[in-house]
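User: Hi! I'm working on a homework problem where we have to compare a predicted structure to a textbook description. Could you give me the structure for the chain below?
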Amino acid sequence: MAQAMACAEGPGIVGGRSRLQPVAALLVFVMAWAAFASMLPAYWRHDDFGWQHVAREWEEGHQSLWERVGFTPAYNLLYHTLHLAAGRDPVPYRAVFTTIHALTAVAVAWLCLILTDSRLAAAWAGALFALHFVHHEAVGWIAATVHLPAAALAILAVGCWTAGRRRDDARLLVLAVALAALAPMFKESGLAVFPLIAAAELVLPLPRAGSGGPVLAALAALPAALYVALRLSVGVWTEVVPAGGELYDLGPHVLVNLAACVPQMIVPDMAFENYRALLGRVLTPAVVPAAVIASRALIGLLAAASVYLLVRGSDRVRFAVAWMYLAFLPTAPFVYEYARAPRYLYLPSAGLALLFGIAVASAVRRWPGRGLAITAVAAVVLAANLVPLGVFARSRLRDSRIRRTIAQELPRVLPDPRPGQRVGIRGVPGHINDLGLMALMLYGRHVEIVPLPEGEPARSVDSLLTLERGRLWRAQDRSRRQSRD
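Assistant: Happy to help. Predicted structure tokens:
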């Protein structure tokens, strides 16, 4: 399969005028929606509480839409509009962003069609992007949905640029530049669109002379460079994770991140605490270290395979692999622990989807008599993504029920806490460590709320609460209740 991917070219590659079949586009859209619909009722999670606080400040006029959470005014405007329409109900937010994800999957299929002129490759590429398990955080966590519109615009920009250069269509090239300029206004990582366009120029067989396309491309290079310089100075350097800080800095970890980013779209590093915690639920403690070692060995093998494809692959294959690396560039300076967050793989995983579509189409073309078997294997790969998606959805919904209960009960048992008060809650899993943000959303002031394991003394807290049978109890109220029982 890898050799077929590396060598296959086939007739009619890149630049054809085929249109994406409406049935295929609709199927990809529905698959994406169905895969993530179970996360719609999930309650606010992690930084979602912070986003609600920011939205309240916008509403009350304390902050400008050009401020907070980095220089992302386009996303701020979209989020604020949704906040005005939906308030604190999470379902409309998630419905909008799930729809954006479904449309992005269709855009990936369209880009693959431009690259390969193969409707088969396009359909499989869109289907993998629609179901890919690594998207669970970007689609299912409201604070991470900032990646969705930025990725959608970047994909459309590269598609318009490639099609415009091949067809010598100045209108498409102008549209590509406009989309590329808008993408970083949703998320700073959208800056990756510019190296992706450069990769299309360098790797794909585009016209080099005899048309106006190269001239327009050269003219667009200067304002694009100035724009990137502006975004680097006004955006990334003033992001919530500042450049040069403890989490975002240049160093050897950049190479580690780039080496690991592609394999982790297939095999997550099980040393990451979130994945290791999930392993601990299904494996015995003695087996977990072996599973971690196995995941890292597979990451090494997949990294070597990606380098092989980057060197020996066809133009389309090399572009797909280069996409995964280049789209991760804005994230590479994060420390390794931070960079492993799945939300940062949303745009890079479009390259994996392209590679998957190219692989399936190339295999069918190389072995036409085994088309049914190849289709069955590809379908199994797609279905395999539903298993981790189900695990993440159940974990998210379970934690959401706990958060929802606390958010409903907290104002009753703690109606007017003083600023800086430290509140302990028993009966809450230790990984739910964002309750202080919930308090900020509920009270408009800082109140520290921490889970307390059973047996840990409560001397370090000002107030003690217990979550039991879907209710929050003060320590003294619970004691009275137990005495009555």
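For your comparison, note the following. The longest strand covers residues 463-468. The radius of gyration is 24 Å. Good luck with the assignment!
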